[in-house]
Amino acid sequence: MTVISPRHGLILAAAAVLTAGCGLGAELDREANPERTRAHTPAPPTVDPSRAGGPGGVGPAPQVEPPAATAPPGCPATGVQVTTGMVSATMGLRAMPVTLTNCGAREQRVNGYPDVRVRDVNREPMDVTVLKGPGPITQLDDPGPHPVALKPGESARSVFVWRYSAVDAATQRGSGVYVEIAPAAGVARQTVEPDGGLDIGDTGLLGTTAWQKVTD
User: Fold this and answer.
1) Nearest CA to 80 among 105, 60, 59?
2) What is the pLDDT of residues 29-74, one digit of tens each?
3) Is the pTM of this model over 0.70?
4) Which residues of 164-200 are buried (b: 16+ CB within 10 A; e: fewer)?
5) Is 19 in the same domain as 86?
6) Which of 156, 170, 158 is nearest to 130 (CA)?
7) Measured at the alpha carbon of residue 72, what is the angle toward residues 69 and 78, in degrees to the nearest 5?
8) Is 94 exposed, middle or buried (0-12, 13-18, 19+ CB in 10 A)?
9) Is residue 72 part of a domain?
10) Range name among 43-47, 85-89, 95-99, 212-216 with the lowest pLDDT average
11) Count of domains forming the chain
12) Tens digit of each residue's pLDDT (9 = 90 or more) over 118-156
């Protein structure tokens, strides 16, 4: 058994009192003057919201990227742009190339024939039957429906064919001035104004070929 001398014990007891006295003195001071204690209580650290991370508020806040635009400026929301080429006329037969270009940032896919509606000079729908295929208007190569994948900048093409019918030059009666075209049924159509219009008159038939990728 270890024996502690009276002098050594007195030193240990004094040290214990001094150590406890620091906490005890602070506690007594709080009891005697609570306002003074509150005034000297340090404020909790503030957290910069810009640096608040997870539940513990540690680390920089995650940066949320803005959603990517569906299409760049000048490109329709569908991500594709429809344009028409020069009308070719031979022996009363008309043919017009229609180009579908992927102007967006994502790959586009088409399969089949364009969806078309023809309107007159007053934007009224014309009585035109749009055919899937060029017959019986003419014999023309038609690739038929098949999957076509268009990367940004790539294009597909369809050919519209019809037979000429007399158009009133003064009133443009019988002319398809506005042609609404979509890659497929159910997709928003885009309105184009072919140069000279579609002099389809009363024939009432418009043939189309399936979309085919442009490789030239």
Assistant:
1) 105
2) 444 455 544 444 455 555 454 444 444 444 444 343 333 445 688 8
3) no
4) bbebeeeeeebbbbbbbbbbeeeeebbeeebeebbbb
5) no
6) 158
7) 80
8) buried
9) no
10) 43-47
11) 2
12) 999 999 999 999 999 999 999 999 999 999 999 999 999
Cis omega before residue 136 (within 30°)? yes
CA 211 to chain centre: 24
Say how far apart CA 130 and CA 159 lie, in whole Å: 12
- Which amino acid, 128? V
Do residues 152 and 101 both lie within one domain? yes
Residues 162, 96 share a domain = yes
| Cα distances (angstroms) measured from residue 43 to each of 26, 39, 46 | 18, 10, 8
What's the whole-number average pLDDT of the chain? 78
Backbone angles phi, psi at 32, to 5 degrees: -75, -35
* CA-closest candidate to residue 154, choices 200, 213, 210: 213
Which residues lie below 8 Å from residue 119, measured CB to CB, with a gap of 6+?
A: 125, 126, 176, 177, 178, 179, 180
